[in-house]
Amino acid sequence: MLTRLQSNKLFSKVLLSRYNNGFPNLISGSQFLRGFNEITKHRFSVMSGENLRSLSNCASPRNYRVVVAATREMGIGKDGKLPWRLPSDLKFFKELTVTTSDPEKKNAVVMGRKTWESIPLEFRPLPGRLNVVLTRSQSSDITTGENVVICGSIPSALELLAEVPYCFAIEKVFVIGGGQIFRETLNASGCEAIHITEIGTSIECNTFIPSIDSSCFQLWYSSKPLEENNVRFSFATYVRVRSRTTDNYEVKDLSFLPRMIVERRDE
């Protein structure tokens, strides 16, 4: 007899397998139930209506982590582009956002339309991840399909990712820009951690984001100083503080942190 968790995971895999183009852009309640009922005729014993309803939503909304590179003044760009060239940072970003502890799952990267358009055409969607693109435009020319979905806002994206099949198929959610999206999410309650590449060299920017709120976040990991293309930088991770005293702080279970960050701190 399958446990409920095993049942849910198996159900999610079968549901996802029905979409030849990868993740569906939208699964309405009626479409979801019709598809599942059709599958059960051939693959599963019939489930009760109550059990089906319990599968329609896992949690709401999803928590997330912010990934950003910024100067000391919290500058993140100039004229819509990164004003530095750091291959090591791009490698770190890819490893951080692609790697999962469960090989059968993927991570999601949430970004605004301008960030999506700034990615060279040959590199988008970002491979190995579910790309969630935020746009309020009703006439967007963004092509949905395998690994690309569109949402109108951060709240709607986090709610979608909390629903079946995403709650079973997506392991971690990363918010990756741009400026307006960071301003909405950086210090918000749903942010569990901030992975920031701290640029130590003075570089001119004209796009800025808020500073990390030290009353909410505590530095948990910082790499040794690095330098590349005459730019000094380091990788740092801040975690949300659950409670704090004058000389100490407490965070919740750190299982939400990527394994690579935990391993780097332990080195």
Which features characterize this protein?
2 domains, globular, nine-stranded mixed β-sheet, NADP, two-stranded antiparallel sheet, one-carbon metabolism, 267 residues, dihydrofolate reductase activity, Dihydrofolate Reductase, subunit A, alpha/beta
What's the CATH H-level superfamily name of the largest domain? Dihydrofolate Reductase, subunit A
Structural class: alpha/beta
CATH class label of the largest domain = Alpha Beta
Estimate the mean pLDDT confidence.
81
Low-confidence stretches: 1-5, 14-54
Describe the largest sheet. 9 strands, mixed
Beta content comes to 25-35%
Number of strands: 13
User: What is the terminal-to-terminal distance?
Assistant: 43 Å
Radius of gyration: 20 Å
Q: What is the 3D shape? A: globular
Q: What would the CATH topology of the largest domain be?
A: Dihydrofolate Reductase, subunit A
Annotated CATH architecture of the largest domain: 3-Layer(aba) Sandwich
What is the percent of helical residues?
Answer: 25-40%
Q: What topology does this entry show?
A:
Elements lengths: L3 H14 L11 H15 L5 H7 L8 E8 L3 E3 L9 H12 L7 E7 H6 L10 E6 L13 E4 L2 H7 L5 H4 E8 L1 H7 L5 E9 L7 E2 L8 E6 L3 E3 L2 E10 L2 E2 L4 E2 L8 H8 L1
Parallel strand pairs: 1-6, 1-7, 3-4, 3-6, 4-5
Antiparallel strand pairs: 2-8, 7-11, 9-11, 10-11, 12-13
Question: Concise description?
Answer:
This protein is of the alpha/beta class. It has nine helices and 13 strands.
Structural account:
- It is a single chain.
- The chain is 30% helix and 26% strand.
- The protein is of the alpha/beta class and 267 residues long.
- The strands form 3 sheets. Strands 1, 3, 4, 5, 6, 7, 9, 10 and 11 form a 9-stranded mixed β-sheet that branches. The chain has a two-stranded antiparallel ribbon with strand order 2-8. Strands 12-13 form a two-stranded antiparallel ribbon.
- α5 links the parallel β3 (106-112) and β4.
- The longest helix has 15 residues, at 29-43.
- Residues 1-5 and 14-54 have low confidence and may be disordered.
- Its EC number is 1.5.1.3.
- GO terms for molecular function: dihydrofolate reductase activity; NADP binding.
- Belongs to the dihydrofolate reductase family.
- Keywords: NADP, One-carbon metabolism, Oxidoreductase.
